[in-house]
Amino acid sequence: NGNHGSINGSALTYIDGVVGKAGVFDGNKNIILPNPEILKVKGELTVSMWVKSNSVPSSTRLDIFFVGRDVNSGYGIASYGGNGFDFIIFTDTGRYNLSFTIYSVLTHIVIKYDPLKGIFIYKNGILTYTNKDARGTIEYPEMFTPCLGSHGGSIYKYIGEIQDFRIYDHCLSDKEIYDLSKALVLKYDFDASSKNAQQAVI
Asked: Residue 154 contacts by C-beta under 8 Å, 6 or more apart in sequence?
């Protein structure tokens, strides 16, 4: 259906995931996400994935993904070493972020942005982090190539494992988030479901 991504770099390898297989990112590859215009969500947004972080030096930056550019545009997840990560979003009212942790075990993470209520991060189905100051319409004055496992096509390549990565253009309910965290609705190909969900599912 035109939503298949393409691997950039060495071949993607797999290990056992929660159900099926998780993709292994070793710092030498990424996946170029399809249909960048559809990924430019402006209002409600949900990002869902299973993810594991491997240990890296505290001075090393790694990106799980980014849609836009990290200085002024879009949204994404960056790490600056260790187990700490930031969800970053740029709107017409400013730059906002919310920090969270990922450890060396596959963990289900859902990030939900409501332009009227803020940022909410769920870990294994439980609401764990909030930033209720975040507001506004997401803006995209600059657009690097959207990738899973890096920023743009070539920098900040991720080291760890990712499974069932999804982007939705609406806020999932608590029940939908719970179902995802219990691996009740996993899929294993690129797909597009209701409300233009863009799924880079591996």
From this structure: none
